[in-house]
Design goal:
The complex is a heterodimer of chains A (115) and B (110).
Chain A (H helix, E strand, L loop, with lengths): L4 E3 L2 E4 L5 E6 L6 E7 L6 E7 L2 E5 L7 E4 L6 E5 L8 E8 L9 E2 L3 E5 L1
Parallel strand pairs in A: 2-11
Antiparallel strand pairs in A: 1-3, 3-8, 4-5, 4-9, 5-6, 7-8, 9-10, 9-11
Chain B lengths: L3 E4 L2 E5 L4 E7 L5 E7 L5 E7 L2 E5 L2 E6 L4 E6 L8 E8 L8 E2 L3 E6 L1
Parallel strand pairs in B: 2-11
Antiparallel strand pairs in B: 1-3, 3-8, 4-5, 4-9, 6-7, 7-8, 9-10, 9-11
The chains are: A mainly beta (115), B mainly beta (110).
Chain lengths: 115, 110
C-alpha cells in the first residue's frame, strides 16, 4: 500500500499525559500537512512541512503541540499535557507540489480521546 | 462568515435521485477539492478542479471561478453514497493549506 498511513488509528489517554502520533506520507511527496477535525466540523489546518522545514503553523497550534519531520519523510505530532479539548481526529495529508500537481492525499486519521 | 460555505448541511434522498451539493467561497483560490468522508473513516479526494467540469462515474463536479461557486452532483444515487461530502479550497487566498467547509451529511435511503 503506497498511500498515506497514520499510527495509531485510535488513542485513549488521560488528561495531562503526552501523546505522539506518526504520519508516513506517500514516498515522493515533499509536502506534509496536519489537520484537526472535531465532531460535526470540517477539518482545520494545524501545520505543514515542505521537506523537513515547517513552513506554517496555525494559531490553533498552542505551545503544547509540536510537530517534526526530521528527514523530510515521516512526521510526528506531539501533544503535551493533553486536555479534554484536544479530543479530535488528527488527519495527515501529503502532496507533491511540483508543477500543478498539488492534490492532497489523506491518511485514515488518528482519533484521540482524552478522558 | 466562514471562508467556505456549503449547502445544505444535511440531505436525505431516495435511492436513484439526482443530488446536488453546493459550495461557495470568499477568497481567491487556485483549486478546489471535493472530498468524501465515511463515518469513522478517513478522507478520500473525489475531485480537484480549478475550472470547468470533471466527471468520474456517477459524480460530476463543476466550478465557476468568477462566481466563486462549485457544485457536486451525484446521479442515480445509491445508499453506498451515504457519507459526508466536504468542499475545501486551496490557493493564494489561503496561503498553502486547504480551508474546509463544514461538510454536507448525505443519507441515501433504499
Amino acid at each position: 500500500d503506497t498511500g498515506v498511513s497514520q499510527d495509531p488509528r485510535h488513542k485513549i489517554t488521560k488528561r495531562g499525559q503526552n501523546v505522539t502520533f506518526r504520519c508516513d506520507p506517500i514516498s515522493e511527496h515533499n509536502r506534509l500537512y496536519w489537520y484537526r477535525q472535531t465532531l460535526g466540523q470540517g477539518p482545520e489546518f494545524l501545520t505543514y512541512f515542505q521537506n523537513e522545514a515547517q513552513l506554517e503553523k496555525s494559531r490553533l497550534l498552542s505551545d503544547r503541540f509540536s510537530a517534526e519531520r526530521p528527514k523530510g519523510s515521516f512526521s510526528t505530532l506531539e501533544i503535551q499535557r493533553t486536555e479534554q479539548g484536544d479530543s479530535a481526529m488528527y488527519l495527515c495529508a501529503s502532496s507533491s507540489h511540483s508543477g500543478v500537481d498539488y492534490e492532497q492525499y489523506f491518511g485514515p486519521g488518528t482519533r484521540l480521546t482524552v478522558t | 462568515k466562514n471562508e467556505v460555505e456549503q449547502s445544505p448541511q444535511n440531505l436525505t434522498a431516495q435511492e436513484g435521485e439526482f443530488i446536488t451539493i453546493n459550495c461557495s467561497y470568499s477568497v481567491g483560490i487556485s483549486a478546489l477539492h471535493w472530498l468524501q468522508q465515511h463515518p469513522g473513516g478517513g478522507i478520500v479526494s473525489l475531485f480537484m478542479l480549478s475550472s470547468g467540469k470533471k466527471k468520474h462515474g456517477r459524480l460530476i463536479a463543476t466550478i465557476n471561478i468568477q462566481e466563486k461557486h462549485s457544485s457536486l452532483h451525484i446521479t442515480a444515487s445509491h445508499p453506498r453514497d451515504s457519507a459526508v461530502y466536504i468542499c475545501a479550497v486551496f490557493g493564494p487566498g489561503n496561503g498553502n493549506k486547504l480551508v474546509f467547509g463544514a461538510g454536507t451529511i448525505l443519507r441515501v435511503k433504499s
